[in-house]
Amino acid sequence: MSVAPLAVEVICVFCLAAYLLHKYGNIRRQHVLVTLATLVAWYFSMIIIFILPLDVSTTFYRICLGSIQPPVTPAAVLSPTTNATPHTNQSYTDAPSNVTGNDDQPLVRRDALFDTPTCQVPWSYVQEHVLPNMWHVVYWTSQILTWLILPFMQSYATSGDFTIQGKIKTALIENAIYYGSYLLIFGALLIYVAARPDLQIDGPRLKMIGITASNTWGLFLLVLLLGYGLVEVPRKCWTSSNREQLLAYTRFQVAKLSTDKSDAEETLEDVLEEVSKASEAVRYNHPHRKYMDTILRKVPEDMQGRLNRGMDDYEDYPDGRAASIPSGKDLVALHRKTIRAVTSQHRTQIQWDILMERAFGLEDIAESEKCADRRFRSTFPQHYTGILKHVCTPTVEWYWKCLVRPWVLKVLTVILAVFSFVVIWSEVTFFNKKPVLSLFAIFINVAAKNYDYFYIELASCLTITYLCVCVYFTVFRIRIFNYYYIAPYHQTDSNSLLFSGMLLCRLTPPLCLNFLGMIHLDKHVTGNEDQEIESAFTSIMGHMDVISFLSDGFYIYYPILVIVVALGTFFSVGNRCLGLLGFQQFIGDDDMTSDLIEEGKEMIKREKRKRQRVEDGEARRKSWRDRYGTTKDRASSLQNRDASDSDSGRGSMKSGALYGKAKYSRVKDKDDSAQVELLKDSEPLDYDDSLAENEEFDRAKYTRSQAGRSSRQATGSRWTGGRGYGSQAPPKGLFDDV
């Protein structure tokens, strides 16, 4: 038997988790513990998603072995636990009657599923003890992360205290309510078990109660999120295929986000004003100055110039000022307020930039569709390098964005809609075992009967992945979780990374357990007593028989509510109710929606003009530097020219005295010398937009100045010390002739 497929999947899943963390997180700026905890949380959650299909195929193989008739005459038996290594499509023609999947549990026949005396070994088959040991490590590590470590790290990171003890105390207090929800469920279940005379509380039962409490919390939230995502994910895909509708929705989001962005900026301005006053009060010689410096380091770099740091050592505290100095608690509250304000402003700015990029792209598509030459024209073109430069041409880009991509999204919408219908149907019928109504159970059983283990693993992996996409799409879509966001290009903050890892670890195990129930591999959910073989994941998760009202009622019938949530989402019941209450929701036939769409359209126009002015200014400055060089280069050339003029003047005076001929000479000007000295010590100027807009005038002015200098030298006119000799007037300003 080979562990190569398992090892390859484990390595590939780790690489996928590391790549996603690198794409969305900022490893250089965020703390190493945040990076490590998020990586472990994402990795172990993805392990469950991608390794569970191997567990499913192995379970069906073990069920097949249990259904084989014992041979009439003794024969050589090849057992899957011998030293022989099985290969793909290998068959076992003989098997003993006492082949077992576990040490204490014999396998039984399942003639309804397997009607042949041969069992083909799955291509990814591993020894029976490998997967249980892996599930032990993965499950309990993820539970410790989601219930203890990650929530504590979230509160610790956002705490305003300046000491480790203070941060820990604040984190424990903030998580008291969070831990209370779990302890409440655990305590209620513990009381229920203790009240039953036929049950005794021991170590295994306490562990089962803990697992039940975690799964109950996760399943309760899972059904609500899944019902919304199963409808909204296909709808989102369909909206993306309709450019006009997507552009209208994007404009609506821009107008809606502009309010949050303005509020976040105003809040940050108010907080910075408080920080500046506190920094002015707490000066360099105060004991709390080190705390004040910690607060100042949390302020963005582009805003620190407006703060008064209170580092003037020649100023001391005047009489009566000590009363206005903030206390330690005041600084803790100010520190926490600063962290939240900076995080909120950064979040809204990132979301604003993403929406603007999307809006610009959609408007470019609308303009390019009108082009007869079928070449894509972008307002802010993306410069490709390497082979993409030859592949992503304007013509190819036009065909993809304007012609092919909408149809691909429409076909994908149909596929996702069918998938969502199959999931909803299986959720509301998986508890019925005769006849089997769950479509996933029917498809998986047909594949198992034909020994198509690769199809079993592929279908299981795609199904679990789609369920996860629907759930996590809902988490980062609904308004209540708008504080957290996932943004590419290293723009996701540490708090959002920890939150995403916490939800992955919490929702993935109950989601996979629900999937095993839909394919009828959990007999305690389906009530199939004939099934003695169960997956390794189910054996680790255990069963809820110790709490009968959960195992026989909640876990079976509660998932039926997914169809109620799905219907409400399909008819936009929630959005219409929120719209009636005054909340801004995207409803096509609503006056408020139309007004917000027009407002967002104007905002996009202003933002586009602003960015175009910035790009034009950069282009003009680059052209100016390429043509005339920097300020230092012009100052150096001016100094060299003046030095050469001075040398030529002295040479002319000497030659005139020697030969007795009158020669005119240019006397070096004091203002000119001062000008050259200042330019020599100056730094390169950073031209702003106002200078960039008047560069043509400055260029003509510089040319006239040089022409005037040449004409004075040609006519012999000169001026010294501000007094003119001849008709040429001196410059009025120090830098007029530069």
UniProtKB/TrEMBL annotation:
Biased composition (Acidic residues): 684-696
Matches recorded under InterPro entries: GPCR-associated_LMBR1, LMBR1-like_membr_prot
Presence of the UniProt keyword Transmembrane helix in the record: yes
Pfam family, one: LMBR1
Ranges in a coiled coil: 254-281
Bilayer topology: Multi-pass membrane protein
Location of the region described as Disordered in the Swiss-Prot/TrEMBL record: 608-655, 670-738
Bias (Polar residues): 703-718
Transmembrane segments: 6-21, 33-52, 137-156, 176-195, 215-233, 407-426, 453-476, 497-519, 554-573
Any GO CC annotation of this UniProt entry: membrane
Keywords of the record: Coiled coil, Membrane, Transmembrane, Transmembrane helix
Compartment(s) of residence: Membrane
Compositionally biased spans, kind Basic and acidic residues: 613-635, 670-683
Main location: membrane
PANTHER family named among the record's database cross-references: G-PROTEIN COUPLED RECEPTOR-ASSOCIATED PROTEIN LMBRD2 (PTHR21355:SF0)
Family statement: Belongs to the LIMR family.
Record's protein name: LMBR1 domain-containing protein 2-like isoform X2
Phylogenetic lineage: Eukaryota, Metazoa, Chordata, Cephalochordata, Leptocardii
